[in-house]
Structures are given as structure tokens and as C-alpha cells.
Amino acid sequence: MSNHGSVGGVRLLSAAGLDPTFELQAAGPDVITGMPVRLGIGYGFNGPEVPVSPNLRACYWGGWGGSIVINDLDARTTIAYAMNRMGDGLDTDMRGIAVVLAFIQSHI
Questions:
Q1: Pairing verdict, β 10-11 and 26-29
Q2: CA distance 90 to 28
Q3: Mapping DSSP to helix (H, G, I), strand (E, B) and coil, where does residue 100 land?
Q4: Can you point out the beta strands (E) in 1-108?
Q5: Which of 81, 82, 98, 108 is most buried, judged by most C-beta within 10 A?
Q6: How far apart are CA 56 and CA 47, in angstroms?
Q7: Is residue 45 part of a domain?
Q8: C-alpha dihedral over 107, 103, 106, 37, to 10 degrees?
């Protein structure tokens, strides 16, 4: 996704497959966490609600226990964190957030 749908010269996703990620599907407080979110197809949007990158075309998703993935199309970068020991909740697990922030600060 972060390489505009191509890897090693092989196209895996077309623009038609990537663009819906950034089409607004829902906005407001998440029903479970109460956190404000803007959601596209399959991912949350980067923005003031959940700032995951300084770049506009970046999206994220996280999972129970602390996993997180960020796709930054402008920086052509994906970073993901999956833990081997679950945390206690859906948000503010600093293990994954710390890894992502360190990467962003040094590479983007």
C-alpha cells in the first residue's frame, strides 16, 4: 500500500484499490473507545484526532493488546508493531506507539 500498490515492480493494488482507503466512511467518537476518529475503508485517517504522521496521506489501524500499523503513502513507508505479550486495552499502549514515534521522528 505504501509503495502505491507495487512491490518489486509487481502491481498488487491499483489506484482504484488504494483510493477508497481515504474516502470518509464515518467520523465521530468510536463506539467502543470513545476516541474521536475518521475512518475510510479498512483504516483510520491521519489527522488532528489521531496524528500518526506529518504527511497527509497516512492511515493507521490498531488492535487489541497494542498492535499497530501505519501506512504513509507520501513517505512510501509502512511500519507495524505486533507484540508477543498482550497489553490491557485498545489504546495508549506505549510499546507500539513508542516504536512508531521513534521511527517517524528519525525517518519521515
A1: unpaired
A2: 17
A3: helix
A4: 6-7, 10-11, 26-29, 36-39, 44-45, 58-62, 68-72, 77-81
A5: 81
A6: 8
A7: yes
A8: 80
Range of 66's domain? 6-107
67-78 b/e (C-beta count within 10 Å ≥ 16 → b): bbbbbbbebebe
Asked if residue 63 belongs to a domain, the reply is yes
- The whole-angstrom separation of Cα 29 and Cα 50 is 12
Tell me: the pLDDT tens digits for 27-81? 999 888 788 999 998 899 988 888 888 888 899 988 777 788 999 999 888 888 8
| Tally of CA atoms within 13 A in the half-sphere of 87 that contains its CB | 19
Residue 90, domain member (yes or no): yes
Q: Tell me, yes or no, whether 87 lies in a domain.
A: yes
For 13, phi then psi, to 5°, come to -135, 135
The residue to which cell 497516512 is assigned: 58
